[in-house]
Amino acid sequence: MRNHRVMIRIIAALIVASILWPAPAALAASACRPTRDGKDRIEPVGGCPSGYYLRGACCESFKALSQPSSAVKTCPPGTVASLGTCIARK
Predict the structure, then answer these.
(1) By the 8 A CB rule, do 40 and 48 touch?
(2) Is the pLDDT of residue 89 over 70?
(3) S-S: 86 plus which of 10, 24, 47, 75, CB 3.0-4.6 Å?
(4) Predicted structure pTM score
(5) CA-to-CA distance for 49 and 53, rounded, in angstroms?
(6) Partners of residue 39 on adjacent β-strands
């Protein structure tokens, strides 16, 4: 009976370890996010591509990302932009 309890504890520990093992890899994979000043950051795969330099564990772009041209919304006459949509002018 005592060996049975030890065996269950070992199996439970192995299950918990197998569940928690991928967690650090998942956290590390999401570490390369764009910076606050708008520079793109990507994971280096055999080195950084052109336009990027190695900074810490990520490749960071030399230049900030350009804003998409659709960021400035124009509305038809008689309407105004409000919270990203066009509404009738009062």
Answers:
(1) no
(2) yes
(3) 75
(4) 0.42
(5) 8
(6) 64
User: What proportion of the chain, given as a percentage, has pLDDT over 70?
Assistant: 71
CA distances from 27 to 31, 46, 50, 65, 70 (A): 7, 20, 26, 24, 32
* Two structure tokens written together for 45: 């795969």
Residue 70 structure tokens: 């659709």
CB neighbour list of residue 40: distance below 8 Å, 6 or more residues apart: 34, 52, 60, 61, 65
pLDDT greater than 60 at residue 52: yes
Residue with tokens 């005592």: 2
Token pair in block for residue 72: 């400035």
CA distance linking residue 60 with residue 55, whole number of Å: 6
